[in-house]
Design brief:
2 domains; Rossmann fold; 46% helix; 332 residues; alpha/beta; single chain; 5-stranded parallel sheet
Length: 332
């Protein structure tokens, strides 16, 4: 992308304006959580999916609802439970009788998965069979029922939530399925000032008036713009080395990686670093990705792609600490 092209500069400025507008609309409803909101929007503009993890009551569901209100996209919410079946989310063929001729035929009734922003609430409560049905749609952007392929409408974005503290009666996502998520975002508890604003808004009858500020075509155009941002070979190699540093006994592995990691990130991790870095570059008014752009997204892009061994679990070590060590030990 040539930075001196007026059309490109205009497109990049429009991207920043729209990004800020969507963030502003969400801010009418969501107090704080700036990093989480930005992470969700990066997923939106890169065509990725987000996994939001946090204890109950932090506004994860409300955040996704607010995002849907700020966009002219079809919104569906699926509350995952242990008895939910794949047909409940995908849809199924039912027999319809023609009142005129009396002939019967199968007709496909679409499920809630046929939206554009899908809120998969408490995804770890569903059985692996139902989880797989959702994750297949995330990967292929289509579903197959009765031998017929149904393409999902673009843009298609899944925002899944899970509770990290209540594991009884849940089915944790396997590593291969976690890898389908572009980002894993950790939703933190609100601080004193944020709680005051939350109380002022929610206990006084205040109702935020959110307006739709982006259309589906504008989002798809923004996704194409992100892909055109330049990533120099040495910056790309930095993202590659960060990804390879998560692989134990590899040429770029750190001491902590060798000691605590069982499996490292897949190539999807490097893809996430690259695309998310491009969004950060555009937001900073640049048309090329910097080392800092890549560093800033290492946590959400790679934390769910590391499989820690027993020693790490016994010591209570989290993936973010290992990633921080990798950032410290991997030169730009």
């Amino acid at each position: 992308m040539a930075a001196n092209e007026p059309a490109v500069q205009k497109a990049a400025e429009e991207f920043r304006r729209k990004f800020s507008a969507v963030r502003g609309e969400i801010g009418k409803a969501i107090v704080g959580h700036a990093d989480t909101v930005e992470g969700v929007l990066i997923c939106l503009f890169t065509g990725g999916h987000a996994l939001l993890e946090g204890v109950p009551g932090l506004g994860k569901t409300y955040l996704v609802r607010s995002l849907a209100q700020a966009l002219t996209l079809k919104f569906s919410r699926i509350q995952f439970t242990p008895d939910l079946m794949p047909a409940d989310i995908i849809g199924t063929n039912i027999i319809i009788e023609d009142p005129g001729t009396g002939r019967r035929q199968f007709e496909f009734q679409r499920g809630p998965l046929f939206g554009q922003i899908i809120l998969a609430d408490e995804i770890n409560r569903a059985t692996p069979k139902t989880q797989s049905a959702l994750l297949e749609a995330m990967q292929e952007h289509s579903v197959t029922v009765g031998g017929r392929r149904h393409v999902l409408e673009e843009p298609f974005l899944v925002m899944a939530t899970q509770n990290p503290i209540e594991q009884e009666g849940t089915y944790p996502l396997p590593e291969a399925q976690l890898d389908r998520f572009f980002f894993k975002l950790l939703v933190q508890t609100s601080n004193r000032e944020e709680l005051k604003v939350i109380l002022d808004r929610t206990t006084t009858g205040h109702k935020p008036d959110l307006k739709a500020v982006m259309t589906a075509d504008e989002i798809l155009g923004a996704q194409r713009l992100v892909q055109r941002v330049v990533m120099a070979p040495h910056v790309q190699d930095y993202a590659i080395r960060l990804t390879l540093a998560t692989h134990p006994n590899g040429p770029f592995a750190t001491e902590q990686t060798n000691r605590y990691v069982r499996w490292g990130s897949s190539p999807r991790g490097a893809q996430a670093l690259s695309l998310a870095g491009k969004v950060r570059a555009l937001l900073d008014g640049r048309f090329n990705v910097s080392f800092d752009d890549v560093r800033s997204v290492v946590g959400p892009a790679l934390r769910h792609r590391l499989v820690l061994n027993f020693e790490a679990q016994a010591e209570g070590l989290e993936a973010d600490r290992i990633l921080a060590d990798i950032l410290d030990k991997t030169p730009a």
